[in-house]
Every structure is written in C-alpha cells, then in structure tokens.
Amino acid sequence: MRPESEAEVCEIVRGGSGQSGALSLRGGGTRGVLTGGEALDLSGLAGVRLYEPGALTLVAGAGTALAEVEALLAGERQRLAFEPPDLRGVLGREGVSTLGGVVAMNAAGPRRMQAGAARDHLLGVRFVDGTGAVVKSGGRVMKNVTGLDLVRLMAGSQGTLGVLTEVALKVQAMPEAVVTLGGPEQGAKGLACLRRALGSPFDISGAAMGAFGSWVRIEGMAGSVAYRAGRLKELLPGWEEVEADWGLVRDAPVRGAEIWRLSVVPSEAWAVAEALPGADLCFDWAGGLIWVGCEAGTAVREAVRGRGHAMLLRGPSLQIGGRAWGEEAPGVARLMAGVKAKFDPRGVFNPGGMV
C-alpha cells in the first residue's frame, strides 16, 4: 500500500483490525529493522511544504527524500546539523532514505555530541495514531512545553507509535571553516585523547577513531577555528591538521556477518572493545557510540551489559518480526508497553519492533 495523502493513511489504519491488520511502516527501507505486517510505503507523502532560510525552518512530508532536502539546504549554505548517516552500504540495502525515516530512528552522525540528535532539531510533527486519528504536536519555533512532549516521543519510536506524515525541523547554517586534527594514538590511548579533546572548552564537533585513524573536528568562523585548532595542538602533542572524510565515520565503516550499534559510557568503550576480540570496530562520539562488525553469534550483548545498550541492525538471527534490542528492565518494559497501548491500542504498527 502506498498512500498519497494523510487522509488515505487514516483510512488504511482504521481498516486494520488487531494483529491481522498489522502494518510495517517504511519510508525508503534504508535504515532500521524490518518488522512483520503488511508494508505501508510512505514515500508518497513527499514534498517540501515550507522552507524559510532566514528563519532556519523547514517543513516537509515524511516521505520526502533526504537527498532532496539536503540539496535544497545546500543551495542556501545550510544543513541538517545532526548529520544523518547513510546506512545502505553497511546494511546491504537499496532505496531512498526519507526524512520521516530519519526522524523515526532519531538518526544522528558524528556531530551529535555537539549539536544533538534529530529530536533536538524537531520543531513539530503530524502523525496518525493507532485509531486512525491525526495528531499534531509542536509548531515552527522551538519552545518549552508542559505535559507529554509528543514531538520528541515520536523521534526514535521507530514507527511503533504512529505514522509520521509531516515534520518541521530547525536547520543550521554551514560553517565558514572546518579543520580536522589527526593523531598517532590508537586503542585506549586514542580514546583517551578523544575524551580529553571533548572535555576541553574548544567546542569539538567530531571525535572518532577507527581504521582511518584518530580524528578531532572543529567547525565555525575561520578565526575561531584557527585559534581552537592551535590550542588543541597544545593539548594533544603530535596531532596535526589532516584531510578527513567524515562520511566514513558517519556511515559506519565496519563489516561482518552481524552489524551492531552500541551506546556506551565513553570511559567504558575500550573495555567493551577488549571483550570483542577480532571484531571490526569504529568509535564515534569519543567512544560513546561503537559500530561493531563481527561473526554471527558473537557475545555482543554480554560485552555491553552494565555499560550501555546494544542494537542489532543486521544479522542472520534478526528475522522480519524479530527484536533488534535485548530485553528491557521490567520497569522500563512496563512503561514502554503503556505508551504503546496509549498510542497504538490495537498493536497495528510495526509488530515485533522496539516495543
């Protein structure tokens, strides 16, 4: 099914009945985990509805191609600050990434530790809940709210709570200058250097380590970037300016039968790595994010237990309708189930997904 309007989405959702009417929500199918149910192709909900460069505001249908949005912004020297990754290569998928998919996964790349994730730039959403009703939350300006913040709730819900039909985002001007410093340290010493840079007052926008080396990125006005780069060289002796492709970091440069995404305490990142000998690893956010490529059956969840969370993105054990996350703590599971029941009482959306 491929609805062309929000009204058609409402009709489709109302026509479902319990598990037999389950829907698998898909934009371009380029990120996230495929779930059970009949495919609901949301790419027809496309088009930029409003773009005001002076107000740094963009409103678009959830099915709008991410590439279209990025090209439009680039024409005004603007960008999505949270640097959404392209996971088609690492997940072995094709298709066109959509803006709704980015929001549903709360996607973010190396700049997240400075600028935040997608949810931190989301101004408003429209979505269809499990009863077929249209819900609108937020607007076109960032403001404090009281009660349940539905805008941020939808970001990262992975299509389990409702069908996103429209999103409003705050965008960012491109920086005047970008400098990357590279250092010789690897392993635990390399991660320590990244954490030292991140803990400095020099406003780091990227801190990563992998097969490409150890990198720290600084962005902003040319004079400020030059000053901060000089101070960082004092803080990290032996580090020099290098040519760097941050797309390598953003798009998870790891390979293996299984692909995992780990969120951990940065100071615990190397301990996790040591528990995964032979794995292909890439560290982002100064170790707060670890991409793992490994053989099927590797004890990844055990390695991260007590240190953070693990999400399986690709692997033979992850079948359609299977769980990407491990079991949640009982209290968290009850809370998530309660939210799911409120927004999707019939269990229509993405059964077997996150909740």
Automatic annotation (TrEMBL):
Boundaries of every FAD-binding PCMH-type domain copy: 1-174
Top-level taxon of the source organism: Bacteria
Keywords per UniProt: FAD, Flavoprotein
Statement: the UniProt record of this protein carries the keyword Flavoprotein: yes
GO MF entry, a single one: FAD binding
PROSITE patterns attached to this UniProt entry: FAD_PCMH
A Pfam family assignment: FAD_binding_4
Protein name: FAD-binding protein
